[in-house]
Design goal:
This protein is mainly alpha-helical. About 55% of the residues lie in helices and about 5% in strands. The protein binds tryptophan.
Length: about 325
């Protein structure tokens, strides 16, 4: 950490609703790998999750559980900073400032805002609208070079870049303009019940999603119930979205190529294949589940990690915030 030559990475994940296999294979697994090469800062973005009404006790529990799960997935607090967004007050402060350099029209064009306000017409609150500004503050506070994100966050990152460029244009170099980081091997995991839709933690059909903390037997059962396609061959093809999804999950877990998988299951049916994928995922998640239980049970250790993470983050964030305030004339 604090190696001047290393590029800085920042990413965040919301604590609500648990993490799916898609979150893991598509994002969080890479967070661990990135630590070898980059100076990484990871955050449980609790402030982002209150754009939707949350039950206080559940939210409080999920914030800690998410942190424990990130540790179990390989985030190493010795090498990276792991913290809870709301523990570092600079996020909310910079967010206000950046909001004054963001246009209403820009925020109105965010597709996630449009989707979410359509889905929850009863609660289209200001936070939902300015959510991308808070995300920009998260990123810009740490002079981030690279932001690992999924395709659904590309538009928000683009906005963060525009805000940074605009601010730098007015006041001179203040923020690093971040780039997206799209890993070479990130599996896009689709729903097990509708392979044309992304696996989503908010899916009401529990058979459609694998949660990282699902019971081992349940994991295998859900894969056995997974929707497949007509025919009986194990082959990746556009007309076989169900089988292709299972193949990419299997490939992401084992490192095997599609050709190798096709050969492995040549002459076998969907049943054998689905069981094999289920058992592979179950076995891959087992050590994560075990480590999670250890982290969560040691309250003091977890508190210590998060406190020290917040202190380190706050130190870095305060430098950027002070710089922005000076440029504007607030200091
Ligand atoms: N908006 C992101 C999501 O829903 C989470 C997030 C918040 C984030 N702040 C961030 C991701 C900063 C990357 C960087 O997935």
């Amino acid at each position: 950490m604090a190696d001047e030559n290393k590029k800085r990475v920042f990413s965040g994940i919301q604590p609500t609703g648990g993490f799916t296999l898609g979150n893991y294979l598509g994002a969080v697994r890479n967070w661990g790998v990135l630590q070898d090469e980059y100076d990484c800062i990871y955050s449980v973005v609790d402030l982002h999750s209150i754009t939707v009404r949350q039950d206080p006790a559940t939210l409080r529990r999920q914030i800690r559980e998410s942190a424990a799960l990130l540790l179990a997935c390989g985030v190493d607090p010795e090498r990276s900073i792991l913290f809870i967004q709301g523990d570092v007050h600079q996020h909310a402060e910079l967010s206000w400032i950046l909001g004054c350099y963001t246009q209403f029209g820009e925020l109105s064009r965010m597709t996630q805002f449009k989707d979410k306000s359509q889905k929850h017409p009863e609660n289209v609150n200001g936070g939902l609208f300015t959510y991308p500004v808070l995300m920009a503050a998260d990123i810009l506070l740490y002079q981030t070079d690279l932001v690992p994100i999924g395709a659904d966050q590309k538009q928000h990152l683009e906005l963060a870049r525009n805000i940074a460029e605009r601010f730098n244009g007015v006041y001179g170099q203040t923020f690093v303009v971040p780039d997206g980081y799209f890993p070479k091997v990130a599996a896009r995991v689709m729903s097990l019940q509708d392979p044309t839709a992304k696996m989503s933690k908010s899916d009401e059909n529990t058979n459609a999603k694998i949660m990282l903390l699902d019971d081992p037997d349940l994991i295998v059962k859900k894969f056995r119930r997974a929707v497949t396609d007509s025919g009986s061959e194990i082959r990746a093809a556009e007309y076989k979205p169900g089988v292709t999804n299972l193949m990419s999950i299997y490939s992401a877990c084992t490192g095997k190529t599609f050709e190798e998988i096709e050969r492995e299951f040549d002459g076998k049916g969907y049943g054998d294949f689905k069981t094999a994928v289920g058992e592979t995922v179950r076995d891959m998640l087992k050590p994560i589940q075990e480590r999670y239980a250890v982290y969560l049970s040691d309250k003091e250790q977890l508190n210590g990690i998060l406190k020290s993470g917040a202190e380190k983050a706050s130190y870095l964030a305060s430098k950027t915030l002070a710089k922005a305030r000076r440029k504007i004339g607030l200091d």
